[in-house]
Amino acid sequence: MDYFIKNIVSLLNEGTNLQENDIEKLIEIPPDFKMGDYAFPCYALSKTLKKSPNAIATELSKTLHAISPISEIRAVGPYVNFFVDKAIFSETVLKNIYEEKDRYGHGNIGIGKTIVIDYSSPNIAKHLAVHHLRSALIGSAIYNIYKTLGYKCVGINHLGDWGTQFGQLIVAYKKWGTEDTHKSCTVTDLNNLYVKFHQEAEKNPRMEDEAREWFKKLEAGDFGAKELWQHFKDISLKEFQKIYDMLGIHFDAFIGESFYNTMIEDTVARINGKGLTRISEQALIVDLEHYDMPPCLLRKRDETTLYATRDIAAAEYRKKTYNFGKMIYVVGSEQKLHFKQVFKVLELMGYDWANRCVHVDFGLMKFKDGKMSTRKGKVVLLEDLLIEAVERIRKIIEEKNPSLENKEAVANDVGIGAVIFADLCTKRNKDVVFDWDEALNFDGETGPYIQYTHARLCSILRKYGKPVTTDINHELLKEDETFILVKNLSQFPMIIQKAAEFYEPSLICNYLIDVCSNLNRFYNTHRVLSEDDDLTKARILLIDSTRQVIKNGLNILGMHAPEQM
RNA sequence: GCGCCCGUAGCUCAGCAGGAUAGAGCAACGGUUUCCUAAACCGUAGGUCAGACGUUCAAAUCGUCUCGGGCGCACCA
User: Protein A293 CA to nucleic acid B2 C1', in Å?
Assistant: First the structure.
């Protein structure tokens, strides 16, 4: 428990007959800092004491005596408000940040625990497009958040490298692939073949049968089919990796769906063995009617397996391989039902870890006039978006800071950062309408705003040129703009924990915006570097602490924090 | 039809394990640079928190219903 809250709780414990735990739960933070730093609402007491909350607050505030680190206790309406000793508070917070440095915000609740995170997971032979962004970024941020808390994280890219579409692709490739495509085939070529297949298949349905045959050959291990499939995969992975590098996204394993082919028979046998299956309309299903869900299909009429089957096999494999404490799937909310079914089947199979599988869903990304679709070629390629973002930032740098060193690197950090921040900033839950101008807006509450604030702080520290010290007079950090910032910085570890608990990176984005606007307000009202040595030293410590918090926060989101821009 | 998600300022969103006066950014208008990066800051204007009922001392927040939008509901992933 927080040192200051602890003191308040023990004060209240003496003044009331409430248990410490109950008091702690009631403590809140007033909406306005002028009211106090912490507040104790008296509504709950008014029932037992049969007095108005206001009267209780007044009486309590008179009985309680402020002792260090609490400086004042005051009744405000139905609340007893507590003011902390600002100097002690700031000393506690700033020293802590100074000592922890890059580790400020880190925790140990995850030590010894493993968490598997499945994110990005694109389909082979298609481009990464903007609608793939969310899974990759949210997953990557959650990975960093949990790592910060001491968890061992395993990031898995569950590539869509199996399924009937590969039969389609083989057919198309054999039919329309030119000499040229065979030699220097790109994802664009593959995607065109895929689109062409669907156009032609509408006129000539026999092609679908051909595709199914090829997929069956592939499943049977046909050499020619397998070679082509591997070729498609290599091409795609190479291109994916380029984009992951641009975004700075890391995976510990690329394990596609095909990997589970050899295990799937055993998985189905195990489900059978538990007596969970039955045949329905010639397909093998797990009936989930008791649980108000449609059945989970394990095997199609033509004997081939499905997505759900492979997901169940994959879950078993991951449990065996990583022995995770928790497994997270960062996949769009349109697959909610699918995961509910898969988790239910795992539970029915008797796995006690089934309830430690979590589907972290997120809202759809679409255009103003409807859904994005690779099949119709209606997408914005991720690469194009990133290149455009960097390009626009490059122009802004030319305009505002032409003498900047490392322009290229900075343009990259800021351009890509803007895209990352924009995507992570809204709660996962909400659908996103893609709009170029919005995705590439750099004013106001954006990535560049955070990074710019950070760069300015670095600039002050550079100008100061001396080592930062915690040996300062903390009495000098008492102005409103200053102390609000100190309090804000103290919340960082708690924000990370909350972000982990709710799988919600946006909490960190919003927190950083808060820190930056508090910093900018401070920056605009107070001069850091001045003739007054003591004051300068004190403010420098605050500047350095803020810089550290912003940097740590940005890194968790997967963004760089350039020192100049 | 059934299920899940969303609805807060003109636009994009915070706030939602009930609590003190509903907050930001963009856009609009007005101001701040002999001074640490103006990619910043300050001010003005802008609200029936979709609507109704209910629970509660207290509801944007919890419950029920209605409306509007999205998604999903057997052989795609």
Answer: 11
